[in-house]
């Protein structure tokens, strides 16, 4: 395995990697490149890829978010193709990213892990991270919703009530375990 800095020519491989892991959260190379180009110059950012036999099998990165900026606060992100997980690739990238972050003396490190990818949470927990909060995804399948039922909420004053009813219904769905 070889770890190297990310290059613009890696966007297709990065998107393919992400989409293999998170098929319900697809990204495109063009969209990813645009997001990277729009980063605030105030925020530090670096990404690497891990290759095996010329194939990008993983990525690791650190960055800062302008909406949550502090000079010593960073986000870290690691993605490993499922067939390459539990083979040391993620661990090697983690060590690489942490070594690159060390000169910035980070006080806060954050990472995301998803309920449908428990191995990601386990990976971070083994490295001293802890679960600070949990977001429960809620999906509204528009094809199964009886939208005409809500047609009466088209006037401006009723939109507030519609929002309240929708939030109440979604909350009940969460409690009932429907998503």
Descriptive overview:
It contains 5 helices and 5 strands; from the N terminus they run βααβββαβαα. Helix 3 (89-101) links the parallel strand 4 and strand 5 (108-110). The protein starts with a strand and ends with a helix. The protein is of the alpha+beta class. The protein folds into 2 domains: 2-125, Aminopeptidase (3-Layer(aba) Sandwich), CATH 3.40.630.30; 142-176. The chain has a 5-stranded mixed beta sheet. Helix content is 35%, strand content 18%. The mean pLDDT is 86. It has helices at residues 11-21, 29-37, 89-101, 118-125, 156-176; strands spanning 2-5, 45-52, 55-63, 73-80, 108-110.
Give the tags:
single chain; 179 residues; alpha+beta; Aminopeptidase; five-stranded mixed β-sheet; 5 strands; globular
Topology:
Layout: E1 2-5, H1 11-21, H2 29-37, E2 45-52, E3 55-63, E4 73-80, H3 89-101, E5 108-110, H4 118-125, H5 156-176
Helix pairs in contact: 1-2
Largest sheet data: 5 strands, mixed
Secondary-structure element string:
EHHEEEHEHH
* CATH class placement of the largest domain: Alpha Beta
Counting structural domains, the number is 2
Mean pLDDT: 86
Short précis:
With 179 residues, the protein is of the alpha+beta class. It is built from five helices and five strands.
């Amino acid at each position: 395995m070889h770890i190297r800095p990310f290059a613009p020519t890696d966007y297709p491989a990065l998107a393919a990697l992400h989409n293999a892991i998170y098929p319900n959260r697809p990204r495109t190379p063009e969209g990813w490149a645009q997001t990277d180009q729009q980063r605030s110059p105030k925020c530090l950012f670096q990404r690497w890829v891990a290759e095996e036999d010329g194939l990008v099998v993983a990525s690791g990165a650190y960055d800062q978010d302008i909406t949550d900026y502090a000079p010593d606060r960073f986000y870290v992100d690691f993605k490993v193709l499922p067939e390459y997980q539990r083979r040391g690739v993620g661990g090697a990238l983690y060590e690489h990213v942490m070594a690159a972050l060390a000169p910035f003396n980070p006080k806060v490190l954050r990472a995301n892990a998803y309920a449908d990818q428990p191995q990601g949470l386990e990976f971070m927990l083994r490295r001293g991270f802890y679960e600070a909060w949990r977001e429960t995804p809620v999906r509204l399948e528009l094809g199964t919703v009886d939208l005409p039922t809500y047609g009466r909420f088209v006037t401006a004053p009723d939109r507030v009530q519609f929002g309240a009813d929708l939030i109440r219904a979604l909350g009940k769905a969460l409690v009932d375990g429907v998503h």
